[in-house]
DNA sequence: TCGATTACCTGTAGAGCGGTAGGTTTCGTT
DNA sequence: AACGAAACCTACCGCTCTACAGGTAATCGA
């Protein structure tokens, strides 16, 4: 019944995540996603009327994922998160690919990422403030530290995806956290 | 004669840079690039036999660009570079889009970026070593500082491209350099 | 001046794309 | 048992994409 349908949709979203990781959004065809769940492309379109609707569902899934309810993040949990991410390359790859595409004109995920980063920077500033107060040991305000924190996480992901052997993502991230936490 | 031809190819590469910035590599059609230089798609294929050949030329152009001959970069020049980049969003957008796509399977730019990052990390380590010796003031080795430096540059670019009003890319980068240069 | 090369063009093949139309099967409800 | 909706299919449309084939006009060296 209705539960069956939701389950099906969840399956499709999961498959879409995989295909986007492999080919990006533009390169991900509905047929490829459909095949992965044993449907025809038109069968898939019954659950998601357009390709963009499927993308929206993928992005919503991501939001649900990292909005762990009422968890007040702490700096040491961020390090653990990065470590966890290093074990789930598929997810990282999906959203790294989407982020890259999203900077192009009229990309359907552009607004999503813009708003997401505004939100994430604010969250990170909160985390830093909770840890260090209005000044980090290095002298930065939390609001100026936050974009750097986010940039390091994203930037390391690209380097790591391209060459996991050469880049110790969690280690490098810990180095950065240490840098933030050191006295000037 | 031959000079004419090279000039034409340069025009095409320039146009390709623009179109890739707008639509990514997968989204960039040869016809769109051709139109921008007043050619038909088939006319363009006379100069570059395949789409991939055109991409290779674009990547080569980039190499030529940032291999400013014999310039030994210094940390303060990096800050100036970021400032300069902030005035040329088209270039940044092109390569941010390409980087994002390149993490997908079998992307023709993947190897390029993998090798490029290996090289850039090594260069950055050299820069840091030239500035600070074998230990940064914060205690990091140059080899461990370099991936962070690169990550911050890339990560800030994405945030800035998505929302230039909200992200002071050069300022944030200077913050990071100060962080690297501070005593532990 | 001639022959060849270069720089294009038109035409078209061949595949893949997202999306629509409409039919059929399955299944829970009454 | 009958009905209606949901789930999914076949068939197809119109478009776009890269690339190939082959022709034509200009240009350049001998």
UniProtKB/TrEMBL annotation, chains A, B:
SUPFAM superfamilies: Homeodomain-like, Tetracyclin repressor-like, C-terminal domain. Keywords: DNA-binding, Repressor, Transcription, Transcription regulation. It holds the Pfam family TetR_N. PROSITE patterns: HTH_TETR_2. Residues 6-66 form the HTH tetR-type domain. Residues 29-48 bind DNA. It comes from the Bacteria. InterPro entries: BetI_C (IPR039538), Homeodomain-like_sf (IPR009057), HTH-type_TetR-like_transc_reg (IPR050109), HTH_TetR (IPR001647), Tet_transcr_reg_TetR-rel_C_sf (IPR036271). This is AcrR family transcriptional regulator. The lineage of its organism: Bacteria, Bacillati, Actinomycetota, Actinomycetes, Kitasatosporales.
């Amino acid at each position: 019944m209705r539960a069956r349908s939701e389950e099906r949709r969840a399956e499709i979203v999961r498959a879409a995540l995989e295909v986007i990781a492999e080919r990006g959004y533009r390169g991900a065809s509905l047929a490829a996603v459909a095949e992965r769940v044993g449907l025809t492309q038109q069968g898939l379109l019954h659950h998601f009327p357009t390709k963009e609707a499927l993308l929206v569902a993928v992005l919503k899934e991501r939001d649900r994922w990292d909005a762990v309810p009422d968890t007040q993040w702490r700096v040491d949990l961020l390090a653990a998160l990065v470590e966890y991410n290093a074990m789930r390359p598929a997810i990282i790859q999906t959203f790294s690919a989407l982020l890259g595409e999203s900077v192009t004109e009229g990309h359907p995920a552009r607004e999503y990422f813009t708003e997401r980063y505004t939100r994430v920077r604010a969250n990170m500033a909160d985390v830093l403030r909770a840890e260090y107060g209005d000044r980090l040991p290095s002298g930065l305000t939390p609001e100026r530290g936050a974009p750097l924190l986010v940039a390091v996480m994203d930037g390391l992901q690209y380097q790591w995806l391209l060459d996991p052997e050469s880049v110790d993502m969690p280690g490098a991230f810990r180095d950065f956290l240490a840098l933030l936490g050191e006295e000037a």
